[in-house]
Amino acid sequence: MIYIVIAIVTFLALILYGAMSRRRVYKEIDRLEAWKMQIMNRPLTEEISKVKGMAMIGETEEKFEMWRQEWDEMVTTQLPNLEEDLFDAEEYTDKYRFKKAKSILAGVSQSLEKIDMRIKEITSEINELVTSEELNREEIVEAKDKLQETKKYYLTHIRALGQTAPIFDKELDEIKALFETFESLTVQGSHLEARQRLVESLNRISDCKTKMQGVPELLVILQSDIPNSLKELSAGFTEMEQQGYVLHHIGIEKEISSLKHLNEQALNKVLELELESAQKDMDETVQKMDQLYEMLENEVHSKQFVISEREVFFSTIQDLHDRIENLKQETQIVSSTYLIEQNEAEMQKKIEKLFHKLQSRFLIIEDSIDEKRESYSVIREMMEEMQKQMEELQRSQKVYEEMLHNLRKDELETKQSLRELRKKLLEARRMVQKSNLPGLPEHYLITIGKAEEYIIEVSKKLDEKPLEMSDVSYVLNKAHEAVNEGYEETSKMIENAFLAEKLIQYGNRFRSSYQSVSVRLIEAEIAFRNYQYEDALEIAASAIESVRPGILKEMEINLKSHV
């Protein structure tokens, strides 16, 4: 039973596969048939007939016959053969020989592709031929006018063209010969080749006219302007040397010889109508001449700078010398009182060393000017570099002067700070005296004692010779911390004592009613008499807060409102 079912299913599958394959092949046959009909309906005959309006000779007649024969071959032989192939493919399909049918259809598709492509090529060739003939008729008149105009321009400017005139004359004759060839080809019906000659003629006319317009200016520049400029450059160089300029670094003779050669090279290219290359050589020549002129101008400006700044430099060197001498004297005075840091002492030595270096450099510069050992541009560079070094030295001098000034300034500020610390410590003592406390706790006395010791140590440091400000600053910072701590502890101690006393007095009203309160208040009184005001406050507050919550906060607010 299972085998029967499998056989039935397989049979049905084969039938379904055959039906679907036939449908796909028939669909491809229909597509190729439609493509074939489309090709047959192409209006190629009409396109070919366009050529009939032209003179049927030479190339035109040959191409017309070739295109007509190709189209006849397609219509009468190739396409009918493809039609038969399609019938064969259909028969193979009916017989379920799909592989053979597909092979035939693939061949038909390739053939139709080739035919279609060739029809497009023929159409393009026809259009090119027809268009060429039309354009030739339209443009030949314009081309002849341009040639005539160019000849007229040539005759008008023949003298300005110089040695290039025969080349242009020959070029115009060759263009004229191209026109004659064009006419001959047109008469022969070779419109495409005639088109090539006409386009070539137009391009050569345009190129010839452009070169004619460019040559005169190039000749004037290369034959007159540049040679005259080179003579002026050489004369100017000689004159500047006679005026005392040192110019050996420029090597003017070698440079001018090189420029003459480059100019001659550019001129030869012009005479061969290689104008673009000649223009590049000419531009290079002009650029290099400009550079030489700039170098000479730079020497003139550099001389003006050197002469005008020489006295300024001398004055600046003298001023630096005077300031360094003053710094040395001031350093000796300050060092007798202050201990100058090693790196700060080294700064003075560096300043003096740099100054002596600048002094030597200035002597070299003066010698170079007087003995004419260097060009002014080189001397100017030396002076500009020296100017930067002088400015750096001036900045270093200013920093060192400020350092010396700050040493004395730090001493005065330290003494002022010391007075303020003593005043603050005295104010703390007065606060204690006014508070009428029964006594002072041991830790408080230690804090105040430490503050007094630091103040004394600062005073001693200020009396030391030489004065080491870094040590003074360190001890002064410690004194600030100790005094501030003592002052804050004084305020806190007095506040705690006052609140503790008030709480104990306030709590007396609860002694008879609350035995625990009475006991805690006795503990608070003992702590108070032992100068433990903070402990007394904590004990009294905890006792009374148990029966009268918030009383401590209330008293603190009242205390601050009366301060």
UniProtKB/TrEMBL annotation:
Residues 256-299, 369-424 form a coiled coil. The keyword Cell cycle applies. Pfam families: EzrA. Keywords: Cell cycle, Cell division, Cell membrane, Coiled coil, Membrane, Septation, Transmembrane, Transmembrane helix. It is found in: Cell membrane. It comes from the Bacteria. Residues 22-563 are cytoplasmic. Residues 1-2 are extracellular. InterPro entries: EzrA. It is a single-pass membrane protein. Negative regulator of FtsZ ring formation; modulates the frequency and position of FtsZ ring formation. Inhibits FtsZ ring formation at polar sites. Interacts either with FtsZ or with one of its binding partners to promote depolymerization. Belongs to the EzrA family. This is Septation ring formation regulator EzrA. It comes from Fictibacillus halophilus. The gene is ezrA.
